[in-house]
Amino acid sequence: MAFQVSPGVLVQERDLTNIIPAVSTSIGAFAGQFIKGPIDEVVSISSEQELVDTFGKPDTATFEYFFTAANFLQYSNALRVVRAQNTSVTNATASGSSILIKNTDDYTNNYSTGQGIVGTFAARTAGVHGNSLQVSTCPSATAYESISTSLVASTSTTNAVGNLTIAVDEGSVFNVGDIIQFSTTASTEDFDDGDFYRITAITSETLTIVQHPRGSGGLKRVILDNSKIKRRWRYYDSVDRAPGTSAWTANRNGSGDEIHVVVVDEDGDISGEPGRVLEAFSSYQKQVTQKLHKAI
To answer: Is the dihedral of CA 156, 199, 192, 161 positive or negative?
Structure first.
């Protein structure tokens, strides 16, 4: 071993080329049932967290498969996983039809141009995972926000503080889920009181409401006869403006081609928060086919 008899700088050169780095060489393959994820498609998984993100958490029907795969990942970071097809598993669809879309390739080859009775939307992965999803669209500036032509109908007790219903002249101009405000002075468009309500049901000319965003409680003040009503799309605050006209369409003398789309965890099974907006697609073009194909 080299040494010095007096203070100084000793330079040593070491050859490390004979050291073999420790890398995982164990690659496993596994097929099983999971609550979500692509079917009949090989997916490379490197960690238990990635297994959860791709195929979901275990439940009473899938825990054996999940923990078998998770156990292997404790010793290796290279697992090829295939979600096996279960004949009883289908995708949630807007039409309510029972149909199976296995994976992205299956969608592209068999459903992307409108084949099958799917409706406007279908959940990306098969299984009950998609049953919690709700899709809401806003196709125009009027659907986004308007001053309703239907006025508060009377000064009866239905307009009293705390009431959960209120009578209007025409219930058909509203939609369940609309966010509404009442004018502070009858027959004016003064909506500065800050009181917002969400419509939960419509029966003829009667609106059932709750305070928004609280989700409970009735009228905070007496609403006067003939008060005007401002209504908004339920998810108006998930986008930055009302849908309008894209530059592409405006340059071709068209108008009103934009649409907003939001995906909501209606039951809370995915996020744990019922009604939470998972994804928002702002100002999409109606004339152009665009795939809303995200992680959900």
So the answer is: positive
Cα distances from 239 to residues 2, 66, 200, 255, in angstroms, run: 71, 38, 22, 20
* Separation between Cα atoms, residue 52 and residue 49, nearest integer Å: 5
Q: CA–CA separation, 75 vs 24, rounded Å?
A: 9
Q: Is 41 within 8 Å of 83 (Cβ atoms)?
A: yes
Q: Are the C-beta atoms of residues 144 and 260 closer than 8 Å to each other? A: yes
Amino acid at 255: S
- CATH no. of 28-83: 3.30.1490.450
Element (H, E) at 40: none
Rounded to an integer, what distance in angstroms lies between the CA atom of residue 285 and that of residue 246? 7
Strand order in the sheet with 133-138: 133-138, 258-265, 276-285
pLDDT digits (tens, 9 = 90+) for 160-170: 888 999 989 88
Beta-sheet strand order (sheet of 28-32): 28-32, 79-83, 42-45
User: Is-contact 103 30, C-beta < 8 A?
Assistant: no
What is the amino acid identity at position 23? V
The tally of CA atoms less than 13 A away on the side-chain side of residue 80 is: 7
SS3 at position 70: helix
Q: Which residue has the higher pLDDT, 28 or 7?
A: 28
Q: What is the pTM of this model?
A: 0.73
Q: Give the residue carrying structure tokens 């934009």.
A: 258
Strand partners, 207: 166, 202
Q: What is the per-residue pLDDT for 295?
A: 43
Strands 28-32 vs 79-83: parallel, antiparallel or unpaired: parallel
